[in-house]
Design a protein that fits this description.
The chain has a single domain (3-281), classed as BirA Bifunctional Protein, domain 2, CATH 3.30.930. The protein is globular and about 45 Å long. The strands form 2 sheets. Strands 1, 4, 5, 6, 7, 8, 9, 10 and 11 form a 9-stranded mixed β-sheet that branches. It has a two-stranded antiparallel sheet with strand order 2-3. Helix 4 crosses helix 5 and helix 6 runs antiparallel to helix 7. By secondary structure, the chain is an alpha+beta fold. The longest helix has 20 residues, at 3-22. The model has no long low-confidence stretch (mean pLDDT 93). Helix content is 36%, strand content 22%. It is built from 8 helices and 11 strands.
């Protein structure tokens, strides 16, 4: 624990709220215990003994609010993932997510730049825009779009070659992912409209132009569930209420940003434990 970092965290979160409130966003607060998480192959949500799961993200619930008629929303709150602990990982962490209807991932990138400027985050001359294809050709020596898709090679090179190569570049939007990495993102022109924001080689945020086609999203969920079963991971039920509402959104974009890692970047903390108060409950 670092008392100065905890004080800084309080100021940073307060400034984030002032930023979004001043931009016309509405703060929302959705359930932490949910019935059906999004079935991501490598993200495991803790099961609750009395039923349901602790969320890894409020994404599906916030999109239902968009479908209900809200246009610009944000949320700051706890999220959970099994099996994640380290200098930059914790089984419980704090996420900031925001969404805009009638917007795409480029508009959210503008929000991100404005937020970071508001927080005086040192970006070393501004954030660079680097496509995934450019990054892999430059730093890994191959093009993921050429030939048969190799997900294991893609993931390995992301961890071993791409992210370390981003570290000296400072602030980077790594954008336009292969369609196989779309998850809940819209695919257009052969690429997923998705970016991840890195600072010093550390991922802080993940953004999508949201997929708003219920049939396509159902198909992707089914494929993800099959992959989870093949990996021996827990199967999650389909969130039918989310799929039923998805078509009412029209178009939207959103992003998830890790508050803990953001505070680490601003304060210079070297461990996520230094910017959280988990010690106060014996963890």
């Amino acid at each position: 624990m670092n008392i100065d970092a905890i004080r800084a965290r309080s100021r940073i979160v307060a400034e984030i709220r002032r930023f979004f409130d001043s931009c016309g966003f509405i703060e929302v607060d959705t359930a932490v215990r949910i019935a059906a998480p999004a079935p991501e192959p490598h993200i495991d949500c803790p099961a609750v003994a009395t039923g349901g799961f602790l969320r890894a993200s409020p994404e599906l619930q916030m999109k239902r609010l968009l479908a209900a008629g809200l246009d610009m929303i944000y949320q700051i709150g706890p999220c959970f993932r099994d099996g994640e602990r380290g200098a930059r990982h914790s089984p419980e962490f704090t996420m900031l997510e925001w969404y805009r209807r009638d917007a795409g991932y480029l508009r959210i990138a503008d929000d991100m730049r404005s937020l970071l400027a508001r927080l005086d985050l040192p970006l070393g001359g501004g954030a660079k825009w680097l496509t995934v294809r450019e990054a892999y050709v430059r730093f890994a020596g191959w093009d993921p779009w050429r030939g048969e898709w190799d997900g294991e090679r893609f993931d390995f090179d992301m961890a071993v070659r791409i992210e370390p190569a981003l570290a000296p570049l400072g602030a980077v939007f790594l954008a336009d992912y292969p369609p196989q990495c779309a998850s809940l993102a819209k695919v257009s022109g052969g690429v997923a409209e998705r970016w991840e924001f890195y600072l010093g080689g550390v991922e802080l945020a993940n953004c999508f132009t949201e997929l708003c086609d219920p049939a396509e999203q159902r198909s992707r969920f089914a494929a993800a569930r099959e992959e989870r079963r093949a990996l021996g991971e827990a199967d999650y039920p389909i969130d039918e209420a989310f799929l039923d509402s998805l078509g009412a959104i029209g178009s939207a974009a959103g992003v998830a940003l890790g508050i803990d890692r953001l505070v680490m970047a601003i304060t210079g903390a070297t461990s996520i434990s230094q910017v959280r108060c988990d010690w106060a409950c014996g963890d």
